User: What shape does this take?
Amino acid sequence: MNRRFSIFLILFTSIPAIAQVASHAPTGVQQASSSPSSKTVALVNGAVLTDVDLLREEYAIFPYARQHNGEMPKELAGQIRSGALKMIVFEELVYQEAVRRNMSIPAPRMQRAQADFRKQFSSPDEFNAFLQHDFHGSKQLLDDKIRRSLLIEALLKVEVDNKSAVTPTELRAYYQANIDRFKHSESYTFQTISVLPPDKVTAEQMKEGRARIDKALVKAKATKNSEEFGLLAEKTSDDDYRVVMGQHKPVPVDQMAPPVLKALRSMKPGEITDVIQLDKAFTIVRLQEHTPAGTTPFEQVKASLSKELHDKKRNQIRIEFDKKLRLTAKVQEM
Assistant: This one.
């Protein structure tokens, strides 16, 4: 997992009913939790991590669970739990290492974090309700949690983020060494409106289908842009692309139906074909872009490639840092 740590991911997440904070307390601070039934899921050098911590991290991995009464998809539940457990153990190891190094948070940074945290609430009353519910009204315990999160963030910046930079030389070298990856075949990007017949189509149904597509063609020719064509596709088309406004991703020419390719060969972007019959189906195609075969220039992929390589490098460094921390740690997962 390579997501960037932040105070709000580590500290603040909406568990049903009211915002919750990770329940394990920083070293030397008595745990404050409104959930006395929380169960231990791991011990990290004696520090207790609970199922409340685990749930917080599961929601960070799969936030859509909040829209489904907190339930994780059955086919992914085990994988999500395993990943979440590894992450909260890693967070605790990083925090303990920061304490061991006697790291501290400057007062101005702490004050900014406190102010940012309070902005998550719509009113002072909402904040006070949260404070009472999760910390028995103790602002000190909340501040300890904020400080803990900032220490994790600070140490990761030193040990992971600052070591993950990709230089222009590295970027260019990767591009040149993997040039085949940036080669592409000729392709077309387009939208469609289609009328599809039933499996056992009759002559009368074919006639009705032709009448439908002819009416759609008149309306399609009157559209002025891709959005108008797409709205028509949503209302008229039978194919699955109607749910994305008839939009197809770039299609290589060797994967296109010959009649469609023949029509597009003579068209300009924005133009619309006449009705094309493909076996017993009818379709109308609006050309958006023709991309000749070639190699994508370095400057066009530079930004996305830089992010990709940075993320990959960061993840590798984070994994190695995790292994290093575990070498001298006692971790028990329940």
Q: What stands out?
A: Confidence is low (pLDDT under 50) at residues 1-36. The first helix runs from residue 7 to 11. The first strand starts at residue 13 and ends at 15.
